[in-house]
Amino acid sequence: MTREPEHTAYPIDGPTAALARKAEDHMTHARLIDTAAPSAPRGVALVLHGGAARRRPMRVSPTQLSVLRMVPIAGRIARAAKGELAVLRLLNSTRGWDAHHTPVDDVRWALGQVAERFGPDLPVGLVGHSLGGRAALLAAGEDRVVSAVALNPWVYPTEGRLDLAGRRVLVVHGDDDRIARPTNSAAVARDLGRTADLVGYVTVEGGKHAMLRRGQVFDQLAADFAAATLLGRHPGGVVGRILAGEEWVDV
Questions:
Q1: Residue 10 DSSP one-character state
Q2: Radius of gyration of the chain (CA)
Q3: Pairing relation of β-strands 145-151 and 168-174?
Q4: pLDDT digits (tens, 9 = 90+) for 104-162
């Protein structure tokens, strides 16, 4: 499997942004896909994909690699939850990130759908990769969100200056990521630590951006953290160390 190329043209402006606005009425809305939907869940895990911007607006395909990479993560969360969590994958309304409509807007839409379907009081955990990791962090302050996992997040180093009081956050980044800079996500984690209840940062040695190398490590960390923060569990291993207060861990 080859990874979908991602690049630094995430914020779109100028003529491309105008094209995006012109095409907005013709674009497919965001969609939610069930991985697990128990009749009486105790919480909801919302799984967010990445994917680079394109020169013209493009709808998200369920078969694009950045979307498919989140399928095993969603499945791992569902298995860890043992029927106690609803696990939903969000397909964004369009690829990439532009100045007019971003994946954070799609997350807000999804949170509204979750509230209508499962009730307004269930806790929600966000789990995202790349731009989905960025969206998870930037949307973590929304109502009902109690935790966020950002896997190899593509972020600017100043984007951690948020008020995430009451939230718990896990950032996992491969040290061999050549697409999203680990130094940026580390800076964001440090800033988030000033307000969030807990922020843990795990460096995956040899991990690359697509999370294919050492993929089981990324998947398990995401599942363990989501299950722990949404269900009140006390896991062992790396996530247990993070929840006990260890902020920086190498694996």
A1: -
A2: 17
A3: parallel
A4: 999 999 999 999 999 999 999 999 999 999 999 999 999 999 999 999 999 999 999 99
d(C-alpha 186, C-alpha 197), whole Å: 17
Q: Which of 133, 131, 115 is nearest to 123 (CA)?
A: 115
Tell me the pLDDT tens digit for each residue of 37-90: 999 999 999 999 997 655 556 677 676 777 889 999 999 999 999 999 999 999
Q: Which of 119, 116, 211, 124 is nearest to 172 (CA)?
A: 211
Record the pTM.
0.87
Residue corresponding to tokens 């298995």:
79
Q: Which residue has the tokens 């964004």?
A: 92
If you write DSSP's letter for every residue of 113-144 in order, what string do you get?
HHHHHH-TTS-EEEEEETHHHHHHHHTTTSTT
Extract the tokens encoding 248. 């920086």
Pairing of β 248-250 and β 97-98: unpaired
Q: Is-contact 135 156, C-beta < 8 A? A: no
Contact 88, 118 (CB under 8 A): no
- What number of helices (H) and strands (E) belong to the chain? 8, 10
One-letter amino acid at 109 equals W
Across residues 188-217, what is the average pLDDT?
96
Name 15's Cβ contacts closer than 8 Å, sequence gap at least 6: none
Please work out, in degrees rounded to the nearest 5, the angle formed at the alpha carbon of residue 35 by the alpha carbons of 185 and 63: 70
Distance CA 115, CA 143 (A): 10
Closest listed residue to residue 126, CA positions, set 172, 161, 169, 155: 169
Smallest Cα–Cα separation from 45: which of 34, 57, 56?
34
